[in-house]
Design a protein that fits this description.
CATH superfamily: Uracil-DNA glycosylase-like domain
Largest sheet: 4 strands, parallel
Domain Uracil-DNA glycosylase-like: 50-211
Family: Belongs to the uracil-DNA glycosylase (UDG) superfamily. UNG family.
Number of strands: 6
Shape: globular
CATH topology: Uracil-DNA Glycosylase, subunit E
Strand order of the largest sheet: 3-2-5-6
Strand content: 5-15%
Pfam families: UDG (PF03167)
GO cellular component, one term: cytoplasm
Function: Excises uracil residues from the DNA which can arise as a result of misincorporation of dUMP residues by DNA polymerase or due to deamination of cytosine.
Number of helices: 9
Structural class: alpha/beta
Oligomer: single chain
Radius of gyration: 17 Å
Length: 221
Protein backbone atom coordinates (compact mmCIF):
# COMPACT_ATOMS: atom_id res chain seq x y z
CA UNK A 1 0.00 0.00 0.00
CA UNK A 2 1.48 3.29 -1.06
CA UNK A 3 0.55 6.24 1.14
CA UNK A 4 -0.85 8.19 -1.77
CA UNK A 5 -1.82 11.32 0.11
CA UNK A 6 -2.01 14.96 -0.95
CA UNK A 7 1.13 17.02 -0.30
CA UNK A 8 -0.75 19.45 1.95
CA UNK A 9 -1.12 16.73 4.62
CA UNK A 10 2.44 15.38 4.52
CA UNK A 11 4.14 17.90 6.85
CA UNK A 12 1.53 17.10 9.51
CA UNK A 13 1.41 13.32 9.05
CA UNK A 14 5.00 12.36 8.21
CA UNK A 15 5.71 11.60 11.86
CA UNK A 16 2.74 9.19 11.97
CA UNK A 17 3.90 7.45 8.80
CA UNK A 18 7.27 6.70 10.41
CA UNK A 19 5.84 5.10 13.57
CA UNK A 20 6.03 1.29 14.02
CA UNK A 21 2.25 0.87 14.27
CA UNK A 22 1.77 2.52 10.86
CA UNK A 23 4.37 0.30 9.22
CA UNK A 24 2.59 -2.75 10.68
CA UNK A 25 -0.71 -1.38 9.40
CA UNK A 26 0.69 -0.93 5.89
CA UNK A 27 1.96 -4.53 5.91
CA UNK A 28 -1.43 -5.81 7.09
CA UNK A 29 -3.35 -3.84 4.45
CA UNK A 30 -1.01 -4.99 1.65
CA UNK A 31 -1.52 -8.65 2.55
CA UNK A 32 -5.29 -8.19 2.88
CA UNK A 33 -5.56 -6.56 -0.55
CA UNK A 34 -3.36 -9.25 -2.12
CA UNK A 35 -5.33 -12.15 -0.67
CA UNK A 36 -8.91 -10.83 -0.49
CA UNK A 37 -11.29 -8.44 -2.17
CA UNK A 38 -11.10 -5.25 -0.10
CA UNK A 39 -12.64 -1.80 -0.27
CA UNK A 40 -12.21 0.96 -1.20
CA UNK A 41 -9.91 0.37 -4.20
CA UNK A 42 -6.28 0.91 -3.23
CA UNK A 43 -6.01 4.24 -5.02
CA UNK A 44 -9.00 5.58 -3.07
CA UNK A 45 -7.93 4.64 0.47
CA UNK A 46 -6.82 8.22 1.16
CA UNK A 47 -9.55 9.89 -0.92
CA UNK A 48 -10.75 11.95 2.04
CA UNK A 49 -7.31 13.60 2.20
CA UNK A 50 -6.80 13.90 -1.53
CA UNK A 51 -10.07 15.73 -2.17
CA UNK A 52 -10.06 17.85 1.00
CA UNK A 53 -6.65 19.45 1.35
CA UNK A 54 -5.37 20.41 4.79
CA UNK A 55 -5.67 24.17 4.26
CA UNK A 56 -9.22 23.80 2.94
CA UNK A 57 -10.75 21.85 5.85
CA UNK A 58 -13.83 23.64 7.23
CA UNK A 59 -15.99 20.76 8.45
CA UNK A 60 -15.13 17.25 9.69
CA UNK A 61 -17.64 14.39 9.59
CA UNK A 62 -16.52 11.18 11.30
CA UNK A 63 -17.71 7.75 10.17
CA UNK A 64 -16.67 4.34 11.42
CA UNK A 65 -16.01 1.87 8.62
CA UNK A 66 -16.11 1.85 4.80
CA UNK A 67 -19.07 0.18 3.11
CA UNK A 68 -18.21 -3.46 2.48
CA UNK A 69 -20.48 -4.13 -0.50
CA UNK A 70 -19.36 -4.31 -4.11
CA UNK A 71 -18.45 -0.93 -5.69
CA UNK A 72 -19.93 1.08 -2.80
CA UNK A 73 -16.95 2.55 -0.92
CA UNK A 74 -15.00 5.43 -2.45
CA UNK A 75 -12.84 6.51 0.48
CA UNK A 76 -15.24 9.15 1.82
CA UNK A 77 -17.39 8.34 4.84
CA UNK A 78 -21.12 7.83 4.13
CA UNK A 79 -20.43 8.35 0.39
CA UNK A 80 -21.03 5.85 -2.43
CA UNK A 81 -19.96 5.87 -6.05
CA UNK A 82 -22.23 7.35 -8.71
CA UNK A 83 -25.06 5.06 -9.84
CA UNK A 84 -24.87 2.99 -6.62
CA UNK A 85 -28.05 2.68 -4.54
CA UNK A 86 -28.00 4.90 -1.49
CA UNK A 87 -27.47 3.00 1.79
CA UNK A 88 -29.99 3.66 4.60
CA UNK A 89 -27.79 6.10 6.56
CA UNK A 90 -27.08 8.17 3.45
CA UNK A 91 -30.80 8.26 2.61
CA UNK A 92 -31.48 9.70 6.06
CA UNK A 93 -28.67 12.25 5.68
CA UNK A 94 -30.20 13.48 2.43
CA UNK A 95 -33.69 13.52 3.96
CA UNK A 96 -32.45 15.69 6.82
CA UNK A 97 -30.77 18.08 4.37
CA UNK A 98 -34.03 18.24 2.42
CA UNK A 99 -36.01 19.03 5.59
CA UNK A 100 -33.41 21.40 7.02
CA UNK A 101 -32.44 23.40 3.95
CA UNK A 102 -35.04 22.61 1.31
CA UNK A 103 -32.35 21.13 -0.93
CA UNK A 104 -33.86 18.53 -3.29
CA UNK A 105 -32.91 14.89 -2.66
CA UNK A 106 -29.91 14.23 -4.98
CA UNK A 107 -29.58 11.53 -7.62
CA UNK A 108 -25.97 10.67 -6.77
CA UNK A 109 -24.76 9.52 -3.37
CA UNK A 110 -21.21 10.54 -4.21
CA UNK A 111 -20.16 13.14 -1.63
CA UNK A 112 -17.05 14.18 -3.53
CA UNK A 113 -18.76 17.55 -4.06
CA UNK A 114 -18.71 18.06 -0.28
CA UNK A 115 -15.06 17.05 0.09
CA UNK A 116 -14.02 19.54 -2.57
CA UNK A 117 -15.73 22.32 -0.58
CA UNK A 118 -13.73 21.56 2.56
CA UNK A 119 -15.74 18.79 4.23
CA UNK A 120 -13.35 16.14 5.58
CA UNK A 121 -15.27 12.85 5.31
CA UNK A 122 -13.14 10.72 7.61
CA UNK A 123 -13.81 7.10 8.48
CA UNK A 124 -12.08 5.89 11.65
CA UNK A 125 -11.04 2.78 9.71
CA UNK A 126 -10.06 3.38 6.09
CA UNK A 127 -10.26 -0.15 4.66
CA UNK A 128 -12.42 -3.27 4.97
CA UNK A 129 -12.59 -6.80 3.57
CA UNK A 130 -15.55 -7.35 1.24
CA UNK A 131 -18.73 -8.43 3.04
CA UNK A 132 -16.98 -8.46 6.45
CA UNK A 133 -17.96 -5.33 8.35
CA UNK A 134 -15.32 -4.18 10.81
CA UNK A 135 -12.73 -6.64 9.52
CA UNK A 136 -9.91 -4.09 9.49
CA UNK A 137 -10.70 -2.49 12.84
CA UNK A 138 -8.10 -2.50 15.65
CA UNK A 139 -5.21 -2.91 13.23
CA UNK A 140 -3.91 0.64 13.53
CA UNK A 141 -6.30 2.71 11.46
CA UNK A 142 -8.01 4.15 14.54
CA UNK A 143 -4.65 5.25 15.96
CA UNK A 144 -3.92 7.02 12.69
CA UNK A 145 -7.30 8.71 12.28
CA UNK A 146 -7.34 9.78 15.95
CA UNK A 147 -3.99 11.45 15.24
CA UNK A 148 -5.54 13.16 12.20
CA UNK A 149 -8.37 14.56 14.34
CA UNK A 150 -5.89 15.82 16.95
CA UNK A 151 -3.70 17.39 14.25
CA UNK A 152 -6.67 19.24 12.75
CA UNK A 153 -7.71 20.38 16.23
CA UNK A 154 -4.21 21.59 17.14
CA UNK A 155 -3.28 23.28 13.87
CA UNK A 156 -6.56 24.88 12.80
CA UNK A 157 -9.29 27.02 14.35
CA UNK A 158 -13.06 27.27 13.96
CA UNK A 159 -13.55 23.84 12.37
CA UNK A 160 -17.09 22.45 12.64
CA UNK A 161 -16.98 18.83 13.83
CA UNK A 162 -20.16 16.80 13.22
CA UNK A 163 -20.26 13.82 15.58
CA UNK A 164 -23.12 11.46 14.76
CA UNK A 165 -23.78 8.50 17.04
CA UNK A 166 -22.00 7.04 20.04
CA UNK A 167 -18.83 6.04 18.25
CA UNK A 168 -18.22 9.48 16.74
CA UNK A 169 -19.09 11.24 20.01
CA UNK A 170 -16.16 9.45 21.67
CA UNK A 171 -13.86 11.50 19.41
CA UNK A 172 -14.92 14.74 21.13
CA UNK A 173 -12.12 14.24 23.66
CA UNK A 174 -9.58 14.66 20.84
CA UNK A 175 -10.94 18.11 19.91
CA UNK A 176 -10.21 21.42 21.62
CA UNK A 177 -13.73 22.71 22.11
CA UNK A 178 -12.43 26.21 22.94
CA UNK A 179 -11.09 26.56 19.39
CA UNK A 180 -13.69 24.60 17.43
CA UNK A 181 -17.43 23.97 17.09
CA UNK A 182 -18.76 20.51 17.98
CA UNK A 183 -22.28 19.46 16.97
CA UNK A 184 -23.54 16.08 18.19
CA UNK A 185 -26.62 14.02 17.45
CA UNK A 186 -27.77 10.45 16.99
CA UNK A 187 -26.51 8.44 14.03
CA UNK A 188 -28.38 8.67 10.71
CA UNK A 189 -28.82 4.88 10.59
CA UNK A 190 -32.49 3.79 10.65
CA UNK A 191 -32.09 2.26 14.13
CA UNK A 192 -31.18 5.65 15.60
CA UNK A 193 -33.09 7.90 13.20
CA UNK A 194 -36.39 6.08 13.69
CA UNK A 195 -36.10 6.59 17.45
CA UNK A 196 -35.95 10.34 16.96
CA UNK A 197 -32.22 10.82 17.50
CA UNK A 198 -31.34 12.03 14.00
CA UNK A 199 -34.10 13.90 12.18
CA UNK A 200 -34.42 17.54 13.11
CA UNK A 201 -30.82 17.96 14.29
CA UNK A 202 -30.42 20.78 11.73
CA UNK A 203 -26.67 20.20 11.60
CA UNK A 204 -26.43 21.36 8.01
CA UNK A 205 -28.04 24.75 8.56
CA UNK A 206 -26.20 25.14 11.88
CA UNK A 207 -22.88 24.44 10.15
CA UNK A 208 -23.60 27.06 7.51
CA UNK A 209 -24.68 29.56 10.18
CA UNK A 210 -21.33 29.09 11.94
CA UNK A 211 -19.38 29.46 8.70
CA UNK A 212 -21.37 32.51 7.63
CA UNK A 213 -20.70 34.23 10.98
CA UNK A 214 -16.98 33.59 10.43
CA UNK A 215 -17.15 35.03 6.88
CA UNK A 216 -16.24 31.58 5.52
CA UNK A 217 -18.06 30.34 2.39
CA UNK A 218 -20.96 28.06 3.28
CA UNK A 219 -21.20 24.44 2.17
CA UNK A 220 -23.54 23.70 -0.73
CA UNK A 221 -24.98 20.54 0.76
Amino acid sequence: MNVDIHLSWKPYLEEEFSKPYFKDLVDFVKIEYQNNVCFPPGKKIFNAFNHCHFNDVKVVIIGQDPYHGLRQANGLCFSVNDEISHPPSLINIFKEIENDLGVPYPESGNLLRWAEQGVMLLNATLTVRAHHAGSHQKRGWETFTDAVIKIISMNKTNIVFLLWGGYAKQKAKLIDEKKHHILVSGHPSPLSANRGYWFGNKHFSQTNDILRNLNIPEIKW
